[in-house]
Amino acid sequence: ICDICGLWYHLTCANVDRDLYSVIQRFGHSGTGDLPWRCKVCKTFAAQMFSEMMNMKQKRMTIEKTMNEIKEKVNNNERDIREIRVERQGNREEMETITQGAAVEIQDKFIQEIREIKDRIDSTETQPAVGEISEDIQKEINEAVQREKRKNRVVINGSTATEDTYEEVWEKVEQLLQKFTIPSSDIVQVARLNDRRYVSVELHRNETKAKLLKRANELKETTQYANVYIRADLTYAQRMEGKQLREDAQMSTFRFQISNPLDGRKQHLLGVLLKL
């Protein structure tokens, strides 16, 4: 099981030998938890996130260095003011002259630098700390990870029985894909979803997935697979986007029918097109 996405992988599909698997079982997710294991996709995204976090850390260190330099300059200014006051304490008139002239100027510069420091501190505090990611960014990352994982997957419904073993499910999927001249070597993995009526099938190439989805309607013309349905494995966000597009299309069609009445045959053809 991947410690990031939580998905289960077959040992052969994940290129994990038995010895390594035994170590992971003892010290990994189901053992002491000292040895995490991540799938290939999550490793890639984790590396990207680590690189971004290191860049943020470097920027933060640069800002802190600049702030320390400014603070040091402010401390030097304060020390200069104190020295001026001590030096001129014995002469009130000279002190007043300095206060009205050079001291006022130094004080103004000091106040200005203090304001600049405060502005920089405020702008730094509004930035996320190193290692922290906003909720929206985290959602986008999770969505991108899920889409990457599912890009070569399809979901099949009706091809297997809920009580079938893993080997029986794999065999039935192989037989089904042979109808589309897709060899067993193109199958990466087969897994049941939470609803055991559905089977997730991952293929080696996206072109094979596109070929399968394009010809999926041919199953309706067969006796054995008339009640089998194949669709792309979509995330929740993708399903909601598709639902919204269908609703918009139906509303556009409804408005078109009101303004341009069609005879029965044309309405039937339009309805078939919308279902494709």
Outline:
elongated
Give the distance, in angstroms, between the N- and C-terminal Cα atoms.
37 Å
Overall average pLDDT = 76
- Sheet bearing the most strands, described? 4 strands, antiparallel
Percent of residues in helices comes to 55-70%
Strand content: 5-15%
Gyration radius over CA: 34 Å
SSE series: HHHHHEHEEHEHH
- Provide a count of the helices: 9
Question: Would you give an account of this structure?
Answer:
With 276 residues, the protein is an alpha+beta fold. Helices cover 60% and strands 8% of the residues. It has helices spanning 18-27, 40-87, 92-100, 102-125, 135-150, 166-178, 206-214, 236-259, 264-275, and strands spanning 153-157, 187-192, 198-203, 229-232. It has a four-stranded antiparallel beta sheet. A hairpin with a 5-residue loop joins strand 2 and strand 3 (198-203). The two termini are 37 Å apart. 8% of the residues are buried. The mean pLDDT is 76.
Task: Provide tags for this entry.
276 residues, alpha+beta, four-stranded antiparallel beta sheet, 9 helices
Reconstruct the topology from this structure.
Layout: H1 18-27, H2 40-87, H3 92-100, H4 102-125, H5 135-150, E1 153-157, H6 166-178, E2 187-192, E3 198-203, H7 206-214, E4 229-232, H8 236-259, H9 264-275
